[in-house]
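Incident log entry.

Two folding requests arrived from the same account within the same minute. Monitoring flagged them as a possible duplicate submission, but the sequences differ. Recording both here for audit purposes.

Request one:
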Amino acid sequence: MEAYMSSIGSKLQMLNTSDHASVVSMNLFVALLCGCIVIGHLLEETRWMNESITALTIGVCTGIVILLISGGKSSRLLVFSEDLFFIYLLPPIIFNAGFQVKKKQFFRNFMTIMLFGAVGTLICCAIITTGLEFRGNLMFESFPSAPLIMGNAWMNAQALLPYVFSLIDGAVQIFKKMDIGPLDIGDYLAIGAIFAATDSVCTLQVLSQDDTPLLYSLVFGEGVVNDATSVVLFNAIQSFDLTNINAVIAWEFVRNFLYLFITSTLLGVLTGLVSAYIIKKLYFGRHSTDREVALMILMAYLSYILAELFYLSGILTVFFCGIVMSHYTWHNVTESSRITTKHAFATLSFVAEIFIFLYVGMDALDIEKWKFVSDSPGTSVAVSSILLGLVMVGRAAFVFPLSFLSNLSKKSPNEKISFRQQFIIWWAGLMRGAVSMALAYNKFTSAGHTNLRANAIMITSTITVVLFSTVVFGLMTKPLISLLLPHPKDQSRSLSFSSDPTTPKSFTLPLLGEGQDSLDDLGGHEIPRPSSLRALLTTPAHTVHYYWRKFDNAFMRPMFGGRGFVPFVPGSPTERNPQNQWH
């Protein structure tokens, strides 16, 4: 009996010790988060160092200190978990992106954004995969010569193609000789999806929505759609056995990808509409604004969890849920709840981003992964260099051709994407971040650990690419954009984009910036009905907006609420304010 009680006591003591260690780790991590916020604020005036680079740098420095204190055993306070990233950290970031997006700019350039974010991601993934698995020149020998009408920008790029292809071919041969380990076609496709995921946060912090609305909209929209496409593509690759691929398997793969993409979007829209309908009908604000704020936050998170439950893309679902909730639900709550939710979503997203980059910086020095490549550190560096080169080429292979296709549909020269803007879009997508890290961990580790040399090399290479691209390319972003866009204000006037009005017209807050915009308002001007089929084809964005606004005003907003469509009752979200009434 004594031995039994002694055993229980020792186990409880070990449990208490483990709990205390976790508390210590969380205390240090929270202190580091506070340090990142303070240092980021102090460096904000320079516009060189953003929160991402600051968090990465602090994470690396902290990892070095922990590595020295632990005698080279560990550099981390927490063990990386894909569940922590995908279930708790990513949803607030993506939802806030959809909630804060300037919808007029996003949907006005929707086709171009989808070209870059979806089609471009698939092209980039294919080039990275092909570059790693096959000889580079086999893929590019069949690459059709672009017609002369593509202009000087494409002709200049086309002249460089033979040199680029020869460099890729040489890199491929080096990659094959490095004897990394057993990787099949499924692994190469997964690597393509991992490194197709971009992180354009550094560029977005330099660009201005008001000075360069077209460019900001394209970079921002492509970044979100790109992340969603990469994750959907990665999940589709993981669910198929591609070792013996044939036409049937390829068709099933494409069908599964489209199914995930479409159903995820529809689920996000449906969840947003349900939240708008519930809040509009029940008027929680009459009794407690806390309830409607809590319901908005929980419904936003529910959309993501439902997508994961049904094996869909949570990123796409929560992004479009954010767009729908900002267009309908947000207008159905009281004024104080609007302020609260706006700040709450932005704050949660901000803290989650810092948390991710801080951890990535600390995990970069994890000794467990680096010991597998300690006998040949040059291998990891070489793999990282090849991957970075393929990323740059893969991105150039779709940005410039797809920009040309997009420009063909634009009649006004001011609406076309100039070569300098194309270069900035290309540059913005060179940086890799948390999504690439999470997908790499999901593929090549088990609960944050790896015991295979090939997997360790891919993890260390991913870490190297993320650190190098975020820090080096991120620091070069500000002077590069200043060089290419020396007079952004003049450019913004030439683009002929009217600034978006703020949605909450009854108040103005510094944190809200330009605030929410709505599809029902185009700079205060009425859009004429297209008078002919030619008018419909020559101005498709205005045409779609015209018919969408008629449908929205006639059916959607009377049912789900929105600006000016919430009936007034005592205690309801609608204030008796002429600015809130629909005309």
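Request two (distinct sequence, not a duplicate):
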Amino acid sequence: MDHEHGSHGGGGTGNTTYAVTNEELARRFWYIVAAFVGAFLICRIINWYKLERRLRRHTSSSVQSPTKPDTAFLELWATLTAVVREVSYPQLYVPARGFSWLTPPPVGRVVVLLVYWIIVIYMATDGAIFPDVFHWERIGYRNAWVTVTQLPLLYLLSSKCNVLGFIMGISHERLNWLHRWVARTMLATGAVHGFYFYADWARSELVDYQIKMMPMIKYGFGAWGLLLWACVSGLAPLRRFSYEFFVLQHIVTAVLLLWLIYLHIPVDARYNLWLAIAALCLDRFCRTVMLAWQNVKVFPDKKKCAGGQRIGHQAQLRAVGDSITVVTIKDVHFKWRAGQHLYLWMPRVGIAEAHPYTIACAHQLPETCICNSIQLVVRKHGGFSKRLHDFATKAQSTGKKERLTVFVSGPYGEPPRWDIYETIVLISASTGASFTLPILESVLRFKGTTCVKRIDFLLTTKQGEEIDFYVTRLHEFIEHAKDTGIELNVHIAVTRGPTWFPINQDGVTADSSSGSSTGTNFVAGKKAANEKITGQRPLPSPNDIEQTAAAVPAERKRSSNASTDSHVFYSSVRPDIGAYIRGPVEATGGETSVVVCGGPSLVARTRNCVASLSDERAVHKGTGAQGIQLFVEEYSF
């Protein structure tokens, strides 16, 4: 788009009608966006009414399953919801090693993209394709408008303090996929814009003349090049190769892109640019205010909060095994909900790095002398997480208790309410339990009215040491579940490495201190005694693992045999996700919520299993089968 096109009456039609049409199409685009957001808001209101009605019905002792719809309108809404879920949940997974990042979005997101592309194609072609002398220029100019019209949406979707997400009840990370696809769509429409103008000039041999006479053309090429770089560098393999570099260069690219677009577009289209700048500035302002509010205390009460300090928060690190670091952050004076995450900035480990981590607890940690404390569980990969684990390991080896000053931003995330389902199935892989375990904790310790009667918790991992932190807390929750009256079933699957849990001759996990079946992972009575004193379960040493493995017959070490006790079911094979979900779904009389946190493979399997089971049981289609809701948290940053 350049400044001279207006001399042709808005794109070369010889009158001003076409320019009005371009601006009208731009307004229609935002009418459609507003209608889409409004539809989400209406759905939120209806769902809020449904959930409040459930909780009110639960107070009546005569209602056995308050999660069942009890009016004609709610039955119709439940049927529509079930149909949308069955259509939107399935996902094709690409299992090829090194190419799993090519896995397409689930069907629901694909439908949203198709609708979006239909709107964009309509805007790019309506009334613009007919043969005349201005054919090439008209299509190029129209696509320039289509491209710049999407600019504010691109920056709105990139915001962490997201206005659209706030209205729709969707967290920023769940809109980020759409942010990337809007950028790719702009790349395509921008390419059409540039190609048609260049082709028109090439036909007349005026390319050099046009570039010389209109300097804004080179800024357009520069803007498109930056957008191409942003799309390429945002691909999953490159984004994950060096996340810190990606974030830094992405911010610089976003600012430079706005500057180049400002130099390229005409004045009558610059309102799109100002809207994008306003979205960027609003996001940065809100995040800065949030950062200051949560990390600066003018008058810290050190008597009330041990570890209280004026700037930042005091944190302690603990290395667990070879790959896990537990970060305990003290004196955090804000509330959070199970399933939310925050951004952690630790200057001594990464001077200019803030990384997102799920809050691994739902409430204030027990046995702490501080006002509020939270824990983060960080798995070692590379970069920041590797330096963090090395730092904690070095401190522990020297016997020092390192206390670091950290800064947090958040919490972010809009997880649903967990107390309005009759059955909850929690599925996680390795450190994905940082997401599912707080949900379990929040339900068991919820003091208000809850519809939950049963919880099934599945935790899978390749190496047992990765989950010992979670197993320790799971046993605490098992005891708590007895007091709440909620049925809790725990299944732990360790699929690789040496046998992580000891199995006696009867195939049952044994507690050496009492001889009873308790589901612990120790073989030495000394460690069991230490556990009773400290309340903590240290990781088994390599010698313990070898002794345990030697005590188990060879045919039992790597087979489908499992150990069970009254609380926990252990196995050494990959669980059947479909069968695991089917059991509690068929046993319940009300709605079930399935929550999964893991990699693409586990997420795709769970999506397909839930959709298939819902279709098989004809949920809310006259069979009496109740709904199955799915909530996915994927490793997708």
